[in-house]
Amino acid sequence: MLGVENLTVRYGAHTALEGATVRFEAGQFSAVIGPNGAGKSTLLKVLAGLLPDPQGCVRFDPGHTPRQCVSYVPQQQTLDWAFPVTVWDVAMMGRTGRLGWLRWAGRADRQKVASALEETGVYDLRHRHIGALSGGQRQRVLLARMLAREGHLLLLDEPLTGVDPATQEGLMALLRRQADRGRAVVMVTHDLDQARRWCDHLVLVNRRVIADGTPDEVYTPHNIEATFSVSHLGHTHAEA
Ligand SMILES: Nc1ncnc2c1ncn2[C@@H]1O[C@H](COP(=O)(O)OP(=O)(O)OP(=O)(O)O)[C@@H](O)[C@H]1O
Questions:
Q1: Cβ < 6 A, ligand 1 pocket
Q2: Is the ipTM of this complex over 0.90?
Q3: Average pLDDT by stretches of 10, the chain with 240 residues
Q4: Domain 1-64+152-240, what fold?
Q5: Residue 12 CA, closest ligand 1 atom number
Q6: Are 238 and 47 within 8 A, CB to CB?
Q7: What are the residue boundaries of the ABC transporter domain, all occurrences included (predicted)?
Q8: Atom of ligand 1 nearest to the CA of 39
Q9: What is the CA radius of gyration of the chain?
C-alpha cells in the first residue's frame, strides 16, 4: 500500500535515515517510535511526498499519487497559530486542498467539514479563531482537517503531544476506527504504551529501522535497548 525501500535521507553532511525499508498496509494502525532526532519525522515527510527526490524507493498503491491520497498532520508546534483563520477555515482546507484552486467548496464539502468537526468534538468551536484554542483543541482541529480530506493514507506526527489523557484516548480510538475502515494510519509517537495498546504494527527507528512487526514481536528488551539507549551514531540519547 505504502512504503519505502532502502531509503537514505541526508541533510547536508548529516544522515537522518539510512537504508530504511518498511511497508505500511491498508487497515493497519502503525506507530513509528524512536528517540529525539531518530529520523521519524523525516520518514513521515518522505511518505507525504514533502522531501523531494529522496535516495531510495517510495512506493504507493498503484494508481494513486501521494497528493491525491495522503493526509499529513504535521507537529502542532510547526504551524503558525496566529494566522487569522477560524476552526472552520482550517477544516475546510482539507477539502480545498483536494479540490485545487479552480473549484469552490460546495454543499457536499461543507457537509464533510461539519461532520469532521463533529467527529473530533470541535463543531461548537467552529467560529473561533485558531489562536484562541488550547493545545488539545488545536490537535482536534488538525484531525478534523485530516478527516475532511478523506485520504487513504493518514500520516500523523506526534498527535498525542500536549493532549490530556482523556482526549488521547478519544484520539487513539478515532485513529483506530480509521484503520478499521480500511485506511493506512501511520503515527509518530514517543508514547510506547499507547502504541502497544492501540496499534497493530510498530516500527522502531533510530536512524535505521531497528525492528518492524506486531507489538509482541517488536516490544522486546533487546529492541527497546537498541532503539533508545545508544544511538548508532555512538552517543547516548539522555532525553529519551
Ligand atoms: N531540515 C533539516 N536540516 C538539517 N537537519 C535536519 C533537518 N530536519 C531534520 N534534521 C536532522 O535530522 C535528524 C532527524 O530529524 P527528525 O526530525 O526526522 O527526527 P525525529 O525522530 O522526528 O525527532 P523528534 O522526536 O525530536 O521530533 C535530526 O538530527 C535533525 O536535527
A1: 11, 14, 16, 34, 36-42
A2: yes
A3: 90 94 95 95 92 78 66 86 90 75 76 96 95 91 93 92 88 95 95 94 96 95 87 44
A4: Rossmann fold (3.40.50)
A5: 4
A6: no
A7: 2-232
A8: 18
A9: 18
